[in-house]
Amino acid sequence: MTATVAEPTGARAWQTYYWRVRNARTPHRPESAGQVWHIRPGHPGGAYCDLGHELDPPAHHSPTLLTRSQPKGCRRDEQEFRGGCLSCEWEGAVHHGGGFGDGDNEAVEDAHDHAFPDWRTLPPITTVEDRWAVPRSPSRWAQLTAPYPAGWVDQGAPVVAWRRYRREAHLPPHAGRPRYELHVTRPPRDRRRRPADQGALF
Q1: Which residues are paired to 99 by β-bridges?
Q2: What is the pLDDT of residues 161-187, one digit of tens each?
């Protein structure tokens, strides 16, 4: 009778196991590693070895994105995504899609719901130009983040920006920007409001 090996739980454990499969340190074929949950390249927490993670878990919840491919018929794989946390073993619901805003956006949002509840109420950046300008301007950054709950900025709370098109992918942290940029739908314009009557202004 053989003992059943328990599956990993949590983003950090999955990432370590993924690299063990890739490096042929498990009974699974290394080429099957893509079918194991792992942190999507470019998202926080990727450790590129099978020896575990170099850093201790963060002291606060920290969102990331897990992914895997599942064989689906002849020569076709289906992508699956779920949110993960680098601080605890929480894992979100599984979403299917092709990535680039399809399936992965929902999983990233789940991870932020876990780490930063009510992130959708944060003030948004409303122009594409300001996505770059605001984080680089100390005064504008302080103004944007003033309504953030205490401690959120230091914990890497996301920047929220109006999306340019329906499935604009959320951006993971990268060099020069240590937080996610999450895209939300621009509120509809109130077409009932008309410009003020110029005569009434004088």
Answers
A1: 102
A2: 999 999 999 999 987 789 999 999 999
Q: Which of 163, 73, 28 is nearest to 19 (CA)?
A: 28
As a whole number of angstroms, the distance between CA 69 and CA 79 comes to: 5
Q: Whole-model pTM?
A: 0.87
Contacts by residues 151-155 (CB-CB < 8 Å, ≥ 24 positions apart): 151/60, 152/116, 155/58, 155/60, 155/61, 155/62, 155/115, 155/116
- For 69, other C-beta atoms within 10 Å of its C-beta total 15
Q: Which residues pair with 182 in a beta bridge?
A: 160
Rounded alpha-carbon distances, angstroms, from residue 144 to 57, 129, 148, 150: 28, 15, 8, 14
| 79 touches 67 (CB < 8 A) | yes
What percent of the chain has pLDDT above 90? 74
- Provide the angle, in degrees to the nearest 10, between the axes of the packed helices 128-136 and 138-145: 110
